[in-house]
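User: I'm putting together a teaching handout on how multi-component assemblies are represented. Below are the sequence lines for each component of a complex, exactly as they appear in our records. Could you produce the 3D structure of the whole assembly as structure tokens, so the students can see both representations side by side? Please keep the chain order the same as the input.
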Amino acid sequence: MTATLLDALALLGNFDHRLLEIVGLSLRVSLSALVIGALLGLPLGAWLAVADFRGRGALIVALNALMGLPSVVVGVLVYLALSRSGPFGSYGLLFSPAAMVVAQSVLVVPLIAAVSRQIVEDAWKEYAPEFSVIGIGRPQAVTLLLADCRFSLSVATLAGLGRAMSEVGAVMIVGGNIDGYTRVMTTAIALETSKGDLALSVALGIVLMSIILGLNVVAHGVRCWAARRYG
Amino acid sequence: MFPLRIAGLRFSPEGRAVLDGVDLELGGEGITVILGPNGAGKTVLLRLLAGLLPAAGGTLAWGDSALPDGRLAMVFQQPMLLRMSIFTNVEFALRPQALNAAERRRRTQEVLERVGLAERARDCARLLSGGERQRLALARAWAMRPRLLLLDEPTASLDPSATDQVERIVREIRTEGAKVLMTTHNLGQATRLADDIVFLAAGRVQEHAPAQRFFAHPQSPAARAYLQGELPWRIAFDR
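Assistant: Of course. Below is the structure of the complete assembly, with chains in the same order as your input.
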């Protein structure tokens, strides 16, 4: 075990080309999914927080349930959608990084939307009377609330990045884990461990854990800074 | 918008009568203070006027109209402040009005100067003290140039100095032509500010009189008991 750990540290210390390539692709795919997730999830969550329509409760329950959507299920659904006989088969995205971005976006959008819905709704309950007297309409309220809750929402967004980076099932199915093309950290760890190349798995695991830990440090820092700066 | 005629106004959440037929007529000038014990329905009355609660019955007539003309502002006991600058906390309230950005900035700057917060315009609003928060909320309402300003216990939990500053601002707003309708439990404040008093108890207006006359010669038994600080006033009144 010590030898494996030393080998893993050596890979990290030598900036192993293969390792960097996998980490780079992971970051590109997950950050792209995060951008899509934030662009769709934040407005969706904020709109749901202030909207008033029949079926809103059911939609919230559904959204909350989708937070726990198994990634392999998402993988299968996206696979079916992107496969040659599927509705988006003509785009030829299956087994490409783009397909992985789509799959991770599907996982991240409900998470960001559900968490931001709760955050914005709490603020909306507090602000609604004054907004109403001032004459702020719901579309304008969505914009103001997103701006007002920006620090809490940034934490929700970082949680989305954590979800994207750590999932394995969906990207394995729609990406195919092709060496040098669609192999990301999680799929590489799964594969290399089964092959017995534990050093690379451990090295990737250290990088992955460091990123997740770093995200949590950043999230905590943002909250503390915002509380001091903005109350 | 004025006179504001309130007739038979009722509010009964879950069958409990909070307002049980309020009749009141208010002119468009001066400061009217609503007095009454806790639970009398003072805040509910303001919220009904602001359109924040649905009435169970009765009518509101704003001059010749059934609706206010939009020039209505309200300051709450705990004002809402966005996690943004003091300046933005005033300026955003002008966005629904048909004003260009330059005019919104000018008005915001003007009211912040008048409430003594202009030099701190870029500071974060949520870090203000209680008195400063209330001054900011008043500045926001003032910037909207309301015809009717509703104030719900604006100095509750403020120290005498902060209370004095708030009262000065309220007088200035009144001087500029806005009608002020406010609630308070502070009888000294009512004496200092009010042109007329509405005394509300048991969900109804028990008395509406010029302030001097109300404090010197309250007509209703409930108002007399309230001013004398008799705790079991409600029991006596109900009897």
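A couple of points students might notice: Chain B has nine helices and nine strands. Residues 4-238 of chain B form a domain with the Rossmann fold fold (CATH 3.40.50.300).
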